[in-house]
Write a structure and sequence with these properties.
By secondary structure, this protein is mainly alpha-helical. It has two domains: about 160 residues, no CATH class; about 100 residues, no CATH class. About 70% of the residues lie in helices and about 10% in strands. It is built from eight helices and five strands; from the N terminus they run ααααααβαββαββ. The strands form two sheets. It has a three-stranded mixed β-sheet, with helices on one face. It has a two-stranded antiparallel sheet with strand order 1-3.
Length: about 300
């Protein structure tokens, strides 16, 4: 609704400004150099501008309803502009004669051609400016809608990534805790359960669109890998390093966790310790994040 009001205000502003400029140019270039007395050319100028203003309002009403530019619509535009120019010309001529109080003499062919050409040029220019502004505003609105849609899509994607915790991670973590309890390793089970609760609490109650410092992301990733390390015990070697220059930089939360989870899911080798190294460093381009592992890679999958 606000966009419609803004466009309506812009139309009225352009309409008044455009016809004010037309009146000024007509006065300076035509009326003042002529021999018309002030009591004639001032009222005639006002009638000329007023009638042109009303005619373009009629054109505006038609243009708002002409949504498709096929051959019939273009033809209708041309015919309407010609008819409007003829009506405007005749009105100006008879208004001038009425102000002089003379007889209703017909226009000469020279006057008809000159005045009609001027009217046709003015209405054609008005139409061109109208559609230029309209198309520009339509394109701006389309770009804004596209940007909003892209932004919403990115937000939805972040939220989906944020909440799509791998169920295998949950089941395996709980099974690992149960195994530790059965082995009477209660201290390790409690530690792992606390780590799992901290990770779930953070992932479920933190705004997925709010950025966090690199140091906080590294701590969260460390918590996740500690849980996985308790599952794999000696089969997982983890290293997380952060450059002090980038610890305060902001990044989306849980940005690296899906990547590391993918490493554990697809890169593990039987009877081999998996080494994962995550490095956060500052560069001229921004933040450089590197995840390396000694898994089987793409070729063996």
């Amino acid at each position: 609704m606000s966009k419609l009001v803004e466009r309506l205000r812009l139309f009225w502003f352009c309409q008044f400004c455009g016809w004010s400029i037309y009146a000024l140019l007509t006065e300076l270039l035509i009326k003042l150099p002529s021999d018309e007395p002030w009591q004639i050319h001032v009222p005639h100028l006002l009638l000329d501008v007023s009638s042109g203003f009303l005619i373009t309002m009629g054109l505006h009403t038609f243009y708002k309803r002409a949504k498709r530019f096929d051959k019939y619509t273009v033809a209708a535009h041309v015919i309407l502009i010609i008819v409007a120019a003829l009506v405007w010309t005749q009105f100006q001529w008879y208004a001038l004669q009425a102000l002089y109080g003379g007889t209703w003499d017909p226009m000469s062919w020279f006057d008809f051609g000159t005045w009609t050409s001027a009217s046709l040029t003015m209405l054609s220019a008005w139409t061109a400016v109208y559609y230029s502004i309209k198309n520009y505003l339509d394109n701006v609105e389309q770009r804004e809608r596209a940007e909003r849609a892209t932004h919403l899509a990115k937000e939805a994607q972040l939220k989906m990534l944020r909440y799509q915790l791998n169920p295998h991670f949950m089941f395996n973590s709980i099974n690992a805790i149960c195994t530790l309890i059965l082995k009477h390793e209660n201290d390790r089970a409690v530690d792992m359960l606390e780590q799992l609760c901290d990770f779930l609490r953070y992932s479920l109650y933190t705004d997925p669109l709010k950025k966090i410092p690199v140091s906080e992301e590294a701590a969260l990733l460390k918590t996740y890998l500690e849980i996985e390390k308790n599952r794999f015990q000696t089969a997982l070697d983890v290293s997380i390093t952060t450059d002090p220059d980038c610890e305060a930089a902001l990044i989306p939360p849980l940005l690296i966790q899906p990547l590391v989870e993918n490493v554990l899911k697809h890169g593990m080798l039987a009877n081999q310790t998996m080494s994962i190294a995550v490095d956060f460093s500052a560069s001229q381009e921004g933040i450089h994040i590197q995840v390396t592992d000694n898994g089987k890679g793409f070729e063996e999958q």
